[in-house]
Structures are given as C-alpha cells and as structure tokens.
Design a protein that fits this description.
seven-stranded antiparallel beta sheet; 14 helices; disordered N terminus
Length: 576
C-alpha cells in the first residue's frame, strides 16, 4: 500500500535516477554537450557547453536547439531543409561535421565541429546527444560532413562513453546491461564482441558471443557456455585479462600454437570459428574484484586494433564493471529479501473440508520484500482465523512492521475469545505503542462450521478492499459490510462485524490493493475487472483459479506488492 501523502511515484523515482545519470554522463564529457528530446528541444546541457556558448543552462533548456544555435557564415539562421544536423536528427542516425557555426549568447559566432547520435535516457522518450567543440581550423568554404565510419574521432569517443555510462547505469538487470553493452560495441567498434564473466562461485561463463552481420546482431549460442577455470600463471591475453593483470592485443597467430590451459584452448576455438584476425582483450574490473573480460574482434573489417584503441575499450569496460557490480549487489539484496519474505509468510494449516491457497508477488521494482501479508491459523476454540493486510511501504521496514502486526494479532486472537471487531480494536489501540507501523489496512475474519455443515464467516474490515465471494456457478458478491477506518489513525472508533454463510463449492478471495490498482484507472474499474475474471474462472481448480486470476487481473504496470488468499468450501455439506 502506498503512503497516503506520498507524492513521489516509482516512475518519478526512476525519472530522477535517469536524470542524475544523464547529468553525470554529460559532466564527464570533456567537450560541449547537450541532449535534445524528440522535438529537438534541449533537455540537458553540461557546463562546458554553457561556457562555449556563453549561455547559462536556463537559457538553453526548453529551447529548440536548431532555432537557437544554428547559423550560416553570415550569422543568419539556417533553414531546417539545409541543416545537416537537423537532417541527421530526423533520420535518427549518427553523423558529424566540421566548419559549422553556433550562435553564442554574446552575439558572436562559434566555429564548431560536432557529432550527433541517438541517445538512450533510460526508457523515456527518444533523445539525441550533440557533442561539439571549438573548430579552430574551420574553413570559410563551408561545412564538410563526414560519415560516421572508420576510426572514431575524439567527439565520437566522448559520445560513446557518455552513451555507455547512461545506458548501463540505468538498469539493475545483468542480462539487460550486457545486451546494451553489446549493442553499443558492434558494429561501431568491432565485428565480434565476446564477454566472459566470473560468477560468484569463481566459475567462468562465456555469456555473449555476438557477430554484427551488417546492422543485424547474431548471437552464437554454440560458442557460449561454461569455461575452464582461470589459470594462475598463463601469459596468454585472455588469461591475464581474467586475472585483472592487463589489457592486450591478439592476432591471428596468437592462439595457433599448442594451448597452455583450458582457457587458451577455448579462445583458440573461438578464433578459428569466427575468423577473428585482430582482437583487443581487456579486463572487466570493478573497485572490488575482477568480474570478467571483454574481447572485441575484427574478422570482416580491414585493419587491426592498436594500442591506441585500448584506452577507449578499457574506459568502456570500467563503466560496464560498475553497472555489473551494481546489478550483482542488487540481485544479492533481492535474494536476501526474498528469503526473508518467504520466512515471514506462514505455511497454511490443514483445515478438514476446506481447500486453501495463498500467493505473494513482490513489487517488481522494489527490494523483493514488503508490507503485504496473509495469515491463516487455528484458534483456541477450533475456529479458523483468516487475515490479509497491507502495511504502508514495500521495503524491509514495512516487512518488519508487518511481522509485528501479525504476531500481535495472533496473540490477541488466540487468547481473547471475542468477535473479530473487538480483536482488531485491541490491535488498533496497541499498534502505535508497541509496533513501528505508521498505518495499515487489514481484514480479520473468523471461519467456523455450523451444525448443519455450512461454513460461516464473520469478519471486520479496517480500510481494506472487500473480500470477493464467488459461487461455483459464477455468481459474485463483494462482502462490503463490516467496513471501518484503517489501523494507526488513533481515532479508536468502534468497529463492526459482518457475517455471511459460504455456499457449498464457493470460493472466497481475500487480497491486497496491488491486485486491483492501476495507474490511470479507478478503483471501481479494478474491482470490476477482478469480479469479471473471477466469475469466468469459477469452474477451475483452486490452483488454476488463483494463478490465472493473478495473470489476468494484476495490472501490467503494477508497482506494488500483491498478497492473495483463496479458500474454497466443499461442494457437499456434512452436518456435524
């Protein structure tokens, strides 16, 4: 459950993180740089650009870059139809030019060389990066545009590094980071890219072998997979890179002689299969450890890598290492949190005659642990207690608060032979004094079998979405009675109980708001969607009913936890 007064959504948090990464990427560029949106308006600019253009950022951001900056030799605006940068911008391609002019804030003209390239800003709208510097060799004959091919210019190198920083730091998924890295490198720098990673168990895994066939990237699964261990003393380039010793160049003859270890044998097989005649091999090394090695290979491209190419590739590998290290730390945190959540959520007891099933799905962008919970336990008078609740937040603090509420509730329910409303009143009186929970919603119910064999449910609702009752014929009814304010408000209003008899073969569904809430849609729409799909699935087994319901109803853009408890009564009643 989101904070009632919390105005920062997950989308806003992601946007701020992307903006921070964008600012950091531009600041790291040693030339003037700015980014424009899909309309050509400036959305970010670095300090170097402010200085060169004699314009503060506030005079640039939000303005159409072409209208503001682009001028001909006489200082007149250039029509968009004759602007080489604008043409590349609309085509969404990389281009560069020399001898052009930008208008400075002081009225003078700045001769510039520039490179323009599509730019990923973290999953938001399309963007374009412009990197430029003062062109001291500008000729009055006009601009000379070069295709973006062959060895990279200094501007292209800076643009590539900026792209690498932004794209790799905007994801915490290892596979996605590797996919983006490959797309950045081929065919721009090489025909082949090979990534070897050292796992947390000190095993080497060849995760990517990708070839650029024109503009198409082709994965070669047959060359990927587990690798031999890293040798301690082999002088061969890949072995040294995997030990974090040094970067190196390799040629067609490097791996032709008899291999000195398993890693060398695999690298020889790679060179033979791909036809690589020149390769640059660099470590992927974080501040803490060596994570693997990056091999760039040329098989179709004429010309060999030289030592002058290594600094750029090493810079890219360092940025990749930061991204991979962060992703591993994040995945480790998610694993710990998931284990904690699984231990916090209980096993369902066996209640003769009843089927019960529970599901918990964590928020996809959170720490895999949160404040949603369910619980089922037997009471001292042999009735069964059911509860589903939601503590504000989805983090470790929310999970700890959830555990506190659940344990206090269990104690009250076991020792106090009282209606659900009174149990929850006692919990509400205690919540602000003996727990760290700021606010929560919940349903607490008591289920018992009557003498005629029917199952009777009594419950109270503290600000939670209503339970849904589905007959075996597909009739649905929300149990909206017994509703009261949420826990933790210190209002201490009297709560009410409601009762219902569950028909034979019916399904009772208790759930948290993550199942029905979706951005841009009302709560009524979510409740209607849940009712419709629950009715359609009424004839399914309880397992199929629950899993299909989650798949169909949970919003695709859900950023909240979901806890769900489903219970089904027997089709035939048996009097006691």
């Amino acid at each position: 459950m989101a904070e009632p007064e919390q105005t920062t959504s997950m989308d806003q948090q992601s946007r701020r993180a992307a903006d921070s990464a964008l600012a950091g990427a531009l600041a790291a560029i040693g030339a003037g740089a700015y980014v424009v949106d899909e309309k050509g308006c400036v959305i970010a600019v670095n300090a170097r650009a402010e200085h060169l253009l004699a314009r503060p950022a506030e005079d640039l951001v939000g303005r159409d870059a072409h209208d503001l900056l682009h001028r001909d030799a006489t200082g007149q605006p250039i029509p968009t139809s004759r602007c080489s940068m604008r043409q590349a911008f609309h085509a969404g391609r990389t281009a560069q030019a020399e001898g052009e002019r930008f208008a400075r804030g002081d009225g003078t003209l700045l001769p510039v060389s520039w490179v323009i390239t599509p730019y990923d800003i973290g999953g938001r709208e399309a963007a374009t990066l412009v990197v430029f510097h003062r062109d001291r060799q500008a000729q009055e004959a006009g601009p000379r545009q070069e295709p973006a091919a062959g060895p990279l210019t200094e501007l292209e190198r800076l643009a590539l590094l900026a792209q690498t920083t932004t794209q790799l730091t905007s994801t915490l998924d290892t596979n996605e980071a590797l996919r983006r890295l490959v797309a950045l490198l081929v065919p721009r720098l090489a025909d082949w890219v090979v990534i070897d990673l050292i796992t947390e168990r000190d095993e080497v895994w060849r995760t990517d072998v990708v070839h650029a066939d024109g503009e198409t990237l082709v994965r070669h699964d047959e060359l990927q997979g587990p690798m031999p261990p890293v040798p301690e003393e082999s002088p061969m380039p890949l072995s040294r890179a995997l030990r974090g010793v040094a970067s190196a160049l390799a040629g067609a003859k490097t791996y032709q002689r008899a291999p000195d270890c398993g890693i060398t044998a695999e690298q020889r097989r790679l060179f033979e299969a791909t036809g690589i005649h020149s390769a640059a091999i660099v470590p992927i090394r974080s501040t803490r450890e060596v994570l693997g090695a990056l091999t760039l290979g040329r098989a179709d491209t004429v010309g060999d890598f030289t030592t002058a190419d290594l600094p750029l590739i090493e810079d890219i590998a360092r940025r990749a290492a930061v991204a991979l290290d962060n992703a591993r730390l994040y995945q480790r945190q998610r694993k710990v949190a998931e284990t904690m959540q699984n231990h916090l959520l209980p096993q369902l007891p066996h209640v003769p005659g009843l089927e019960m099933l529970a599901r918990y799905l964590p928020a996809p962008d959170a720490s895999q642990v949160g404040g949603d919970w369910y619980d089922v336990f037997r009471l001292s008078d042999d009735a069964t207690a059911l509860t589903v609740g939601d503590v504000v937040g989805h983090d470790l603090e929310a999970a700890a608060g959830m555990a506190q509420i659940r344990n206090v509730l269990r104690a009250y329910a076991w020792y106090q032979q009282e209606p659900p409303s009174r149990i929850v009143e006692r919990l509400d009186e205690a919540i602000t004094h003996i727990t760290d929970v700021p606010m929560a919603t919940m349903i607490f119910a008591r289920l018992e079998q009557a003498d005629n064999g029917h199952w009777k449910l009594s419950w109270t609702n503290a600000g939670h979405p209503p339970p849904l009752l589905v007959s075996r014929d597909g009739l649905t009814r929300y149990l909206s009675d017994g509703h009261g304010i949420l826990l933790g408000t210190e209002a201490h209003n009297s709560r009410t109980d409601a009762t219902a008899v569950l028909p034979p073969g019916s399904t009772l569904l208790l759930y948290t708001d993550g199942l029905i809430e979706a951005a841009g849609h009302s709560l009524d729409e979510g409740l209607s969607r849940l009712r419709q799909h629950a009715a359609a699935l009424a004839h399914r087994s309880l397992t199929s009913f629950t899993d299909q319901l989650l798949r169909r109803v949970r919003p695709a853009d859900n950023d909240d936890d979901v806890a769900l408890l489903a219970l089904r009564t027997p089709r035939e009643t048996h009097a006691r």
